[in-house]
Design goal:
Strand content: 15-25%
Largest sheet: 8 strands, mixed
Strand order of the largest sheet: 1-9-8-2-3-5-4-7
Distance between the termini: 43 Å
Helix content: 25-40%
Number of strands: 15
CATH architecture: 3-Layer(aba) Sandwich
CATH class: Alpha Beta
Radius of gyration: 20 Å
Number of helices: 8
Oligomer: single chain
Bound molecules: S-adenosylmethionine
């Protein structure tokens, strides 16, 4: 099995060459059958044909996933309802993650405001999983926490709450100037969160619809192996060009974290004990309500790599803030 490669061609053909139970995590972001303009793929199949095709690659994803592994599939809710009926026969349901992403009103329906990520374990009793934390959400003007913890403020975690199945803090790449020549590139931090939650260093992450390589980049930054499969040669080449420039270095004080510029945006709960010393934390726990904990910029463990982040990912978070 070739690791750390972007394979060019049809995912079904490549998946057939991958041994059963050899991959730790599979993440799929397939075409949504909404007529998007891809270079090599016509995103407009009949309902039956689309679902039959999805069934085929979903079966392959489950086959190649290890008993300890997880399967993630990102799509609009309509298709996920079909996928869930296939997957319920082959794997164990864990979550429907709602990724908050505003869209435009369609008329005569509720405004679609989230994408879903189906999260299945190959086998729930053996599944590898890590609890995650993300930074507290605060009012941009006054700095106070958005959420009212009432009388429980003394028990606040200094960094932030546990990640739930509703993700509102990671934003889509909205500006064309910040994306590759691809119609639906995902933000790297979304994949970093998935990977931190479900894998260890050295594990293998497979993405059968790799696009311009978001999953592979996240895996590489976090010290995991990747296998990307992409039909379009140009998208595959963009991925390879980006991957050459990436380092295996998204670490602070010896632990893997998801970073943006000077901040950590996702960490594992079990790793907090190694990271705590890198922050200035108020001595009185209740003060977390109005004081943002600061990364110690003089600390040896302070991350420098995100300062060198390429233009495509810069301002990902500012863009979300302004929406
Ligand atoms: C929704 S996009 C994935 C975008 C990706 N997550 C990213 O962040 O760049 C779906 C991708 O699947 C590719 N694709 C379509 N059919 C395919 C197939 N049979 N095998 C492999 N890739 C395919 C398309 O070219 C497109 O790049």
């Amino acid at each position: 099995m070739q690791l750390d490669e972007i394979l060019e061609g049809d995912c079904l053909e490549h998946l057939r060459n991958i041994p059963s139970e050899s991959v730790d995590v599979t993440f799929a972001d397939p075409p949504f059958n909404l007529g998007k303009k891809y270079n090599s793929y016509k995103d407009q199949r009949g309902l039956e044909a689309y679902l039959e095709w999805c069934h085929d690659w979903i079966r392959e994803l489950v086959r190649v996933t290890k008993p300890t592994g997880s399967i993630f599939i990102h799509n609009i809710p309509k298709w996920l309802t079909y996928y869930a009926t296939f997957l319920n026969q082959m794997a164990d349901f864990k979550h429907w993650i709602a990724w908050d992403a505003m869209s435009t009103p369609l008329g005569k329906s509720l405004m679609p405001s989230h994408y879903g990520i189906l999260y299945y374990a190959k086998s729930k009793p053996h599944n590898k999983f890590y609890e995650l934390r993300y930074p507290h959400k605060r009012c941009r003007k006054c700095g106070y926490l958005h959420k009212d913890y009432g009388g429980k403020k003394a028990g606040l975690h200094p960094f932030g709450p546990l990640v739930s199945d509703v993700w509102t803090d990671l934003h889509r790449i909205k500006h064309n100037t910040r994306r590759d020549e691809h119609p639906c590139q995902l933000p790297i931090h979304l994949l970093e969160r998935v990977i931190l939650m479900s894998t260890d260093e050295g594990d293998v992450v497979l993405d059968p619809f790799s696009g311009t390589g978001t999953t592979a980049i996240a895996a590489k930054r976090l010290g995991r192996h990747y296998i990307g499969i992409e039909l379009d040669p140009q998208y595959a080449q963009i991925s390879r060009d980006k991957l050459i420039r990436e380092d295996v270095d998204s670490q602070v004080n010896g632990v893997w974290v998801s970073q943006y510029l000077d901040n950590i945006v996702t960490l594992r709960d079990v790793d907090w004990k190694h990271l705590e010393s890198c922050f200035h934390i108020p001595e009185i726990p209740e003060q977390i309500d109005f004081i943002t904990i600061e990364f110690d910029k003089t600390c040896d463990c302070h991350p420098t790599r995100r300062k060198l982040v390429d233009d495509h990912q810069l301002s990902l978070f500012e863009l979300g803030e302004s929406s």
